């Protein structure tokens, strides 16, 4: 903090840690403060507190406050899949909840224009508030902050979107007022086409997670998804295998309708981390589709999601070196 003795009383103000410099020229005090991670309302409060604190100091007639516009440090993780219906949205919702339970401030952007299901999965059907073109994410019952293309358009409309429309909608969601959100998960549309490519370029994720079922066909598509992220130099944090193995709720017998372990083998062959697996589970489907993410409760599903969430954070640390 550059020091101006006339304003040194500000060093003991509650906002001292945010003050980057303070000068008194004539009777005008100029304070530069770091507003990183603050929401619009919190920035306004900070500005007011600094002005109130400085205007009372001897020799000060006017106070000018400049808040640095630095974008808050935020991590964006894209969740993709080579094909539809593999459980990408279900896993994204539950991983968001698991990360929030670990104490992280989590946002989720539902960019799945072909089937925006996050408002259902996270039980948040209200329209987001907006100030001008700036939207405010909706806080869901599990504490995840959500913006979805499903909240912007009527059901079915987004399906017809072409690339440029999808990317401009995504822009609006990314540029929303995310406040002090630390990590944003982006639920991408399934597939590896141009729409997905331009969405990835727009979201500029720090890392990507691929969801696949264990069948060969799904894994071939997952490999394409890995290639897609490679093309735009986004590190792949790993693959999650979903719908791996089924335990009959009646007789307890285990079977593998889609095979098992295929994603782990593929991950090894492709040199990407394997993040964990979720079984095919009727209770997971029922609870998720009813807006009660199992990750928010106690039980084996919640444990599995929190383990995978921890793996994702560990891989993120690794790619950041
Ligand atoms: N492990 C699982 N066990 C049982 N059902 C599951 C599991 N994972 C997902 N499902 C169910 O499969 C269906 C498809 O899941 P989901 O919508 O998450 O897939 P998706 O990959 O996001 O599909 P799309 O992107 O095509 O919309 C949902 O009904 C969901 O509840």
UniProtKB/TrEMBL annotation:
Binds and transfers iron-sulfur (Fe-S) clusters to target apoproteins. Can hydrolyze ATP. The keyword Mitochondrion does not apply. GO terms for molecular function: 4 iron, 4 sulfur cluster binding; ATP binding; ATP hydrolysis activity; ATP-dependent FeS chaperone activity; metal ion binding. This is Iron-sulfur cluster carrier protein. Homodimer. Keywords: ATP-binding, Hydrolase, Iron, Iron-sulfur, Metal-binding, Nucleotide-binding. ATP binds at residues 82-89. InterPro entries: Mrp/NBP35_ATP-bd (IPR019591), NUBPL-like (IPR044304), P-loop_NTPase (IPR027417), YlxH/NBP35 (IPR033756). Signal peptide: none annotated. The keyword Amino-acid biosynthesis does not apply. Belongs to the Mrp/NBP35 ATP-binding proteins family. GO terms for biological process: iron-sulfur cluster assembly.
């Amino acid at each position: 903090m550059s020091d101006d003795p006339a304003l040194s009383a500000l060093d003991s103000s509650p906002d001292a840690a945010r003050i980057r410099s303070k000068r008194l020229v004539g009777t005008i005090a100029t304070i530069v403060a770091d507003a990183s991670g603050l929401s619009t309302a919190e920035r306004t409060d900070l500005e007011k507190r600094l002005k109130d604190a400085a205007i009372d100091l001897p020799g000060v007639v006017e106070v000018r406050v400049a808040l640095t516009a630095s974008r808050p440090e935020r991590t964006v993780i894209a969740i993709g899949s080579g094909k539809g219906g593999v459980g990408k949205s279900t896993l994204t919702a539950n991983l968001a909840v698991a990360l929030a339970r670990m104490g992280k401030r989590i946002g989720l952007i539902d960019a799945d224009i072909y089937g925006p299901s996050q408002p259902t999965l996270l039980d948040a059907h209200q329209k987001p508030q907006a100030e001008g073109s700036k939207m405010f994410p909706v806080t869901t019952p599990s504490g995840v902050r959500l913006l979805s293309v499903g909240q912007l358009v009527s059901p079915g409309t987004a399906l017809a979107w072409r690339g440029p429309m999808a990317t401009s909608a995504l822009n609006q969601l990314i540029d929303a007022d995310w406040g002090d959100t630390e990590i944003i998960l982006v639920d991408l549309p399934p597939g590896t086409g141009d729409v997905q490519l331009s969405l990835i370029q727009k979201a500029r994720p720090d890392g990507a997670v691929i969801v696949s079922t264990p069948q060969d066909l799904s894994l071939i598509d997952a490999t394409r998804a890995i290639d897609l992220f490679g093309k735009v130099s986004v590190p792949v944090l790993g693959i999650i295998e979903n719908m791996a193995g089924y335990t009959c709720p009646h007789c307890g017998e285990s079977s593998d309708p889609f095979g098992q372990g295929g994603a782990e083998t593929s991950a090894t062959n492709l040199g990407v981390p394997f993040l964990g697996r979720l079984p095919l589970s009727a209770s997971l489907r029922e609870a998720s589709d009813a807006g009660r993410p199992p990750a928010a409760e106690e039980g084996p599903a919640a444990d599995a999601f929190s383990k995978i969430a921890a793996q994702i954070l560990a891989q993120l640390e690794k790619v950041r070196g």
